[in-house]
Amino acid sequence: MYKSLVRSLLFHFDPEWVHHFTFKSLRNFGKVPGLSAFLRNKFQLNDPRLEREVFGIKFKNPVGLAAGFDKDAKLYKELDDLGFGFIEIGTVTPRPQPGNEKKRLFRLKKDEAIINRMGFNNDGVEAAVKRLRANKNVIIGGNIGKNKITPNEKAVEDYKICFEALFDYVDYFVVNVSSPNTPNLRELQDKEPLTNLLNSLQQLNSAKSKQKPILLKIAPDLTDSQLLDIIDIVKETKIAGVIATNTTISREGLTSENKNETGGLSGKPLKDRATEVIRFLSEKSNKAFPIIGVGGIHSPEDALEKLDAGASLVQLYTGFIYEGPGLIKKINKAILGKNSE
């Protein structure tokens, strides 16, 4: 029903408009008495065999929502009703910023993909904190970044501001230095600045009475040599793990008319490369740290492939948009089926 009716209707409209329309609709539906319970009954699959304990957090299931969808923590409760095991908000920055000029979000229907150049548009970290104060039991990841106007040599301060502000309201952190849509941001993935950034956050973390896991989100476009650097950096800084991967700047094999738009590509074309990165990190590190696998998951088989490659958890974004909320339950059913083999 979703693909044949809902998606076919929504895909006639501008994708960013549809995003905001969907948010408003879900928030309004959530106010209808009994609807939240209806959604939980339809979409959630609660089974203790799905539970996972990763970097000290107990997840009710291993299928999460990737950052970028609920940037400002406006819809995490409603999204939790749809069956996700955890919700990652952001990317948030210290100060509000509008992001890049519109039009900045493009569907590639033939490739079942999306190109975005949003540019960390968000209401700022304090607005996210205000909304997260109402959270009761949804596992939240806080994806943090720097403001566009902040030069790279001062980027650490932006990440520290976000870390301190969110610390009491999220369960884990994600350091985003891999988005292609903020000028020069990916330069922070180089070994020296990245080590400095992560060590700075770990110093803040170690001063807390109870530390929070810090993860690093990396680009799929890194070379093998750079991925080996990532393994060394994780070991040196003692962060909790890696999210592999963010969007790609590659356009290889695309056939859709929007294929040459600038920005980060997500969806099916990213599937194989994201899996390759997961497998490389897992094997070369001898499974030394947890990996959250994201990129091109449009089916239960795609998710199982990521888990088999070495991921401990998976996240959806573009697959959620193309396949609908039913995909979460299908993946969890497939995981249960594989566990029973």
UniProtKB/TrEMBL annotation:
Alphabetized UniProt keyword annotations: Cell membrane, Flavoprotein, FMN, Membrane, Oxidoreductase, Pyrimidine biosynthesis
Entry EC no(s): 1.3.5.2
Obligatory cofactor(s): FMN
Any matching Pfam family: DHO_dh
Enzyme class, spelled out: oxidoreductase
Catalysis performed (reactions): (S)-dihydroorotate + a quinone = orotate + a quinol
Gene Ontology MF terms: dihydroorotate dehydrogenase (quinone) activity
Pathway: Pyrimidine metabolism; UMP biosynthesis via de novo pathway; orotate from (S)-dihydroorotate (quinone route): step 1/1
Chief localisation class: membrane
Domain Dihydroorotate dehydrogenase catalytic stretches: 50-335
Binding site for substrate: K71, N116, R117, M118, G119, F120, N176, N181, N246, T247
InterPro entries: Aldolase_TIM (IPR013785), DHO_dehydrogenase (IPR050074), Dihydroorotate_DH_1_2 (IPR012135), Dihydroorotate_DH_2 (IPR005719), Dihydroorotate_DH_cat (IPR005720), Dihydroorotate_DH_CS (IPR001295)
Cofactor note: Binds 1 FMN per subunit.
Domain of life where this protein originates: Bacteria
Compartment(s): Cell membrane; Membrane
Bilayer disposition of the protein: Peripheral membrane protein
GO cellular component: cytoplasm; plasma membrane
Catalytic residues (positions): S179 (nucleophile)
Biological-process GO terms, alphabetical: 'de novo' pyrimidine nucleobase biosynthetic process; 'de novo' UMP biosynthetic process
Binding site for FMN: A67, G68, F69, D70, K71, T91, N143, N176, K217, T245, G267, G296, Y317, T318
Assembly mode: Monomer.
Task of the protein: Catalyzes the conversion of dihydroorotate to orotate with quinone as electron acceptor.
Family label: Belongs to the dihydroorotate dehydrogenase family. Type 2 subfamily.
Protein name: Dihydroorotate dehydrogenase (quinone)
Organism whose genome encodes this protein: Salegentibacter flavus
Gene name of this polypeptide: pyrD
